[in-house]
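Two quick folds needed for the group meeting slides. Do the first one here.
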Amino acid sequence: MSNDYLDLTVPEEGSLTGALLALAVLGVIVAVGLSLRGTLPRFAVIQTTSMVPTLVPGDVVMITHVNPNDIHIGDIIAFNLVAYDIDSQGRPVDVRRTVIVVHRVIGKKVINGHLYFRTKGDNNPTPDPWYVLPQGVLGKAEKVASLGSFGLVLTNPVGRIFVIVMMLSSLVLLLSTVRSYSKGIREDLESYM
């Protein structure tokens, strides 16, 4: 049989593994670049019952950046809630904690030329006791998955480390399988030549 019409070139050892690794590295570089520009959506796991029945603990929401002028009453938004410690005289202390809150917009208000959002959890009896500034809005939130208890595992550092270790182990196993499979194909091709 002539090889004039069919090129059965045997790939170099490890070329498929190298190509997959290069593709993975390129993907990470692109993702980091887009993330730094703010064009990649963020994800958050719902941890409380404040948005039941719309969102339940363990649900994953995708947070996409939006112009504050495009936020309407009824939209679900994610925003930073900054909490300050209070000293004995009732003054805020420099130590602060930022919490991401996912609630529905129930009102918009302009005060002294500044836009503010009024929010409320669907399951809460009253509106939130604060107004949200546009600068604190991370974006609109949309449910993308229901992971249940597994989603809640992702909310603590030990759970995240466990998931990362499992993903890396799976990647190593996948690359090993691909390499073994490509070696078998290479041997089959060589036997036909």
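Then this one, please, same format:
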Amino acid sequence: MTSSGEDPRLWVLYVAVVGVAAFAAAPTTRAAARTFRWPPPAAAVVLWATVTAASVARLIAPDLLDVLDRRPVRTRDSGEWWRVLTAGVVEDGGVLLTVANLVLLAIVAVAAVRSWGWYRAVGLFVLGQILWGLFTTFVVPSVGAGTTGATLALAGSLAGLWPIVGASRPQVIASVATFLLGAVLVALGDAHGVAVLIGMLLGAVLGTVLPPLRPAHTGTGEDRPAHPHPELQAPPPGTPRRDMGS
């Protein structure tokens, strides 16, 4: 299994995962206008700007990659554990690969922050990178760096979320499609498929124990937790009461 992501054909699947995640976060024109409205959320901007700064710094100073990239032997034998995380904020490719990864991250970051809330989204990005970094350090050891794994894990978390909090049929279909795309990547020997599946698992778990806040749409600007079983929610104040037998 490889984690290089150098095959252009695999990038078709990466883009598909991100596209499906964006659709799931905004399955209608109205939802898309709300999710991807300008300006983007501050947390998404900060996350993207942090990764961009590190990636640009690496292009300017190539030796920086030797300090930050994934080196399984050094991590295991020399205790350089920071590489598990820092390998996810720099790119080991050229300008084109860096730009492509930053575009994917920009889309996913906005969708994730608007769906999860800022601290859940940032936490999922970091935790997704740590778990995928550990996988590519110890299970399928490989030298490298790049944001693709963390980005796909964050995209996968959206696919894991929607079925938990009561999704629409298009969102359930998108979740199934994301799982299949991850499975295809694994079958093709690409470790990024594992990142997608890790993200789905994280999304399902977090969506169960700490569901995200959603706009209450009451005009007050407040948020309320997304209920995993909306049919069990108490009706809003002022709703006519119905007898059980009616």
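Slide caption for protein two: The beta strands are 213-215, 223-225.
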